[in-house]
Each structure stands twice: as C-alpha cells, then as structure tokens.
Specification:
Pfam families: PhoD, PhoD_N. InterPro entries: Metallo-depent_PP-like, PhoD-like_MPP, PhoD-like_sf, PhoD_N, Phospholipid_Metab_Enz, TAT_signal. The structure is a single chain. With 693 residues, the chain is of the alpha+beta class. Helix content is 20%, strand content 24%.
Amino acid sequence: MPTHNRRKFLQLAAALGATLAWGCSLVRPSASGWRERRDLYPQGVASGDPDHHSALLWTRRPYDDGRERATLLVEVAEDPAFTRVIATASAPVLAQADWTCRVLVGDLPPAGEYWYRFVDEEGNGSRIGRTLTAPSPDDPRPARFAFVSCQTICEGAQNAYRRMIFEDERAAPDERLGFVLHLGDFVYEVVQYPEQVKNGHRYDRRIRFPIRFPQGKAVAKNRFMAPASLQDYRVLYHAYLQDPEIQDARARWPFVAIWDNHEFSWLAWQSIQEFPGDEGWIPAQTLKVAANQAWFEYQPARVLPPGSKLDAFDAPKVVDTPIKDFDDDGLGTEANNLAAINSLIAYRALRWGRHIDLIVTDQRSFRSRDPGNHDEIAPLFEGDTLGWVPEELVRQLDGGRDYANGKPPAKLSFGAKSVANYRAKEAAQTMLGAKQKAWFLERLRGATATWKIWGSSLGTLDWRVDPQHLPAALGKWPDAGYGLMATSDWGGTYHERAEIFDAVRDAGITGFAIVAGDRHSFWAGYAAKALPPAAFEPVGVAFVTGSLSSPGMAESNEHNLKPDNPLRPLYITNPNGGAPQHTVNLLLQHGVRSALEYASSGDLAKAHAASNPDLAPHLTFVDMGGHGYTTVRVDAHAMTTDFVCIPRPLERKPGAEGGPLRYRMRHEVTLWQPGERPQLRQTILEGDAGLSV
C-alpha cells in the first residue's frame, strides 16, 4: 500500500485510540509462543466496524501488580492454527484505559476471514477470535448480517447467541453472517441487590446478582442501584463480558454497536437523568462522560472522540450543572451538557459490498425532552384505567407549534378534560437533534447501495389501538379517534419521522429498510408517516427484533393483569386454563374486537374476521412475547428477514444449540421502483407463531 495511505491509517488508528497493525505479503508461522490463558483475559476478545480493508480488534488484559502499563503482541492469521500469520503489532495496555487494548489492522484483502489473538510478554495468550473484512463496495455477492438488542445477565440467559453461533458454524461459507448489529442495551445500568428483591424473583425469572458497584447510588425509591462513577460503569462491562454466550459471539463475529438508554441511564436524555418515583431532573454531565468512556473502552467501534489520543479516552472536564436553557431544537446549551454529549459521537455509517449502506443513529444523546413527560398533562388522565393516549393528542404534543401547519390548539384535551397547551410555542420533538439529522439525511440521500438500511435503537412502527370499539363493559373511550399504547419512541415522533420518510419519497429512494430494537418484541411492517383515515403511503419496510433476554410487555401482562381484571382479555388469555396466549398481538394488529373474540372463542379465524382493516395496515407481524434475534439477507433483487424466536430465556440451556426454537418467521420484499409500494410476503419456516400474524 502506498506510503500516503499508510500515513492515513496511522492517523485513523490514533483517532480511534488504537495501535496500527499492518497486513503484509510475507506470510509466516507464529513465533509468539502463545499459550492460552483465558483467566488472564477475563472479558475475551472482540472485533468491530470492519470495512473492506481493515478491522478493529479488542481485548482486556488487567494487571494487579502495581504497574501502570504493559505491552501485548497481537497476531492476525489466515488460519485458526496461526501457521499463516499476516500481521503482528505491539500494543500498549494502560491502567488509565482499564487495561483495554484496541488495534486497527490495515491493508487486509476484502471479504476475508481472519483469526487473531493477543499475547503478553510472558507468552500468556487470549482466546482466539475470528473476524471478517467487508466485501469491496462493488462486490455483487449477497450480504448477510444479524441484528440484536436488549440483553440482561441479571434476569435471563443469552441462549439466542448460542443458537446464532450453532447455526452459523453449520452454514455453508457463503450463507454465514458477515457481522452482528447490536442496537443497544448491551448492558443494563440499573441493577438490584439481594436486599431489593422479594423472594429472589421477578415474574418467573430468578434474579442473579453478578454486579455490585464500587460506589453506586440507590434510585427509583430504592428499587434499583445505578452507577455513580466511571468505575461503576466499567464493572458493568466486566460482568457482562464474562457471560459465556456474549463473549463467544463477540469472538466469532465483528460487531457494529450503538448505545440505547441503559448504556447511560434508564430515562435519560442528553446528560439529564430521571428515575420513576424520584422527583426532578438530575444533572449528570460527569456520568454521561463516564458512560461514554466505558462504552468506548469496551466496544471496538470506529468512533472518534474529539481530541482523543492513542490508547485512551480523553475525557473532558465537566461538572454537574443544572440545565435551564435550551435552543429551538431542545438542545441544552449549558456548556457542560454540550461537552458531555459531544465527548463521543457514536452515529456513523458502514458499507458492506454492493448491497448494504448501513446508517446507524443515536436516539438518546441529542433528543429533545419527551413532550408527554410533563406534570402539566397529568390531570387529563386522572381516573383513567386503560393507559392509552389519544393519537391526536400525541400528534399535538409531538408537533408543538408546527402542528396543523402552525396552528396548534390552545388547549390539550382528552374527553371533557383539558389543560393549557404547554407545547404551543415550542418546536416539534426531535430524536436526532439538528446536526445528526442533517448528517443522516445527507447520508441517506447519497447512499448508492441496493439497500439503504437505517439502524435505529428505537422502533418506528406505530403502536396504534382502536379503543372506540371497546364494549361498554370495559369502559367508554372519551375520544373519537384512535389511541396509542406507547409514545416514547419513533412510533409517536410523527413530525421528524415524516420529515425522514418524505425525504426518502422525494429523493426517489428505493430499498429503504429500518432495523430496530428496544421494544422487547418482534414487529414487521411498512415505513409510513401516517395511517388511515390519512393517506397511507409506505416508503420502505421496517422491522423490530425481540430482546435477546430482557423481559417484555407480554411477560409483564401475565403477572400484573390478574384474572379478575376486565381488561385482561385485551392482552392475554388462557384457553381452557392452559398456557397463556398473548391477545395483545391481535389488539395491535387487528383491533379490540379481534382480541376479545379470540379471548372468548379461541377461534383465530373468527378473530381475524373481526379485524379492523383501518387500524394497522402498516403491520404484518407482532409478537410482544418474542425473544431471539433477526437475520437479514440482501441481494440485487430482494431482502429476506428472518425472525428467529426462542422460548423465554429464563435459564441457560445446555447443549451446543442453545435450546429449541419457538418459530422461524421469514419476511421477504422484492426491490421496488420509485413511486411503487413495497410488498412484504411472510412464510413460517419452523414452529408456531401463534397470534402474531
């Protein structure tokens, strides 16, 4: 490779906090004397963000003998026996970086499979990892990846990773996954100690206690403990990366990771913390920086911390200061807030062959305040038992002064109740913030791959319900229109979502697909800015993957909606006293009448016959009780998305396959032309998807 390219790689490696290892034409056997000592590398190895000529490698080798630094040797080979070593480098590990090590290996051939390992000065070696480089940008071969989210080691087992590894190892080489896209909640920063858990269980789950923070703070009226320092965040990653399935997955594939909320704080936005039951905002600039630093140290990602230096995160000096002033996009202008959220910019793009332009966004660091999370609106819902929010009210809250082409109502109403419209003079809600949104739209319009895939931690499909069809026995809906079951993600961010989808339409973009997580459930459908009675105009397809292990709504309903609750049939039923079935899937996709019909008769055909066709034309599949992962295959003609659903992961399953499957559901869409609507086709490949279709 020319000298100027090598110099460019050296500069990139420095910006990534990495050592540069250079591939070479001289292939030779290993001479390192490596002997495996996994106990000395307790968090294993990993790789991330590959491109078509390089990959970023990672490990952690801690020392407790008082030293501040040590040196590791990294070896990269074309074979797992390391008889064909093509790159080596000496890399420092520093106490100030929690003994983590990052190495950028450059000048590798595209579409390659490589093995790597680390060795200390005494020959003690890490486990062996496997990584891949991306195909060349013009490579026409089909491309494959998996996307995942939401893993908890305190309440579940990561059996989905074991299944993923099992299937990938047995697949033909050209059918294997190229990378894993992790869409957030890699760790959960709120944990419980034994004294905070009654009977040692939540729902049917046995609570485990692998984490105790060196400092920590009690939150949510002492229901949970949360990090209070950088060391606390590091302890989270120490524990999670000792999980055997997480560690094995990171050793098998390169990961592309983006954070969601729990990498920082449960209900946080920008650098502000909030906790249920606790009063007020908590300025947390120091913790936002600490969370960013720990993420940088433990995720091998091509992110460029401003002012970063080789091998360590250069954390800005910030102080926790109340944030009182916000600009027109809802961004807190307080200097420490800006320094904290800009200490690590994680949104980025990746090209994988001819067929994938992947654009990954950050939904937490730059978002404006949730417009529905205001005390002023509480009087509207006093005495309400349904828990749904009128769709039009959410549009008013989201749109602010931009609602109805700049004509917001003076009051916000629900039935006979009303409050002053506190959003009437404020700008529309933003998830991305002005700067990131401009970047995102520019990358989207400029994407040239067959499939333009948006990786979002938060789902975009509407959570719509039709309470106007409730029978009198369940109460009267004091509104004329539809309701929303949830409002805190893109499903209730109408204005900015419409801006994005209109940009796709106006630019004539085809092959637009959204992959998302966070909902702890599987969803499939169409990307459309509005639903009937407004014009329904899909511009792409959208998917949400089930959680790897975190509990979700369906599981909560089983325990929290008691048999005598009149609303229970809308969410769950136990035919003939048998296993629970989740009528909430019918509620979201087909409506109130469909859910109640199935709860009454147990006849799915009758339930489908009672479907409300105007409720959810955007949905083709919903499983609110699904756990597992999703795989994607794309080529010049079609995108094939498979939901791989496993039983509820209460305990680790023995065996190489990670336990049985519940189902494997395939969603296929052929590439459409500008102006056409995409058309999803569904096939159940294995198992039974129950009430999800």
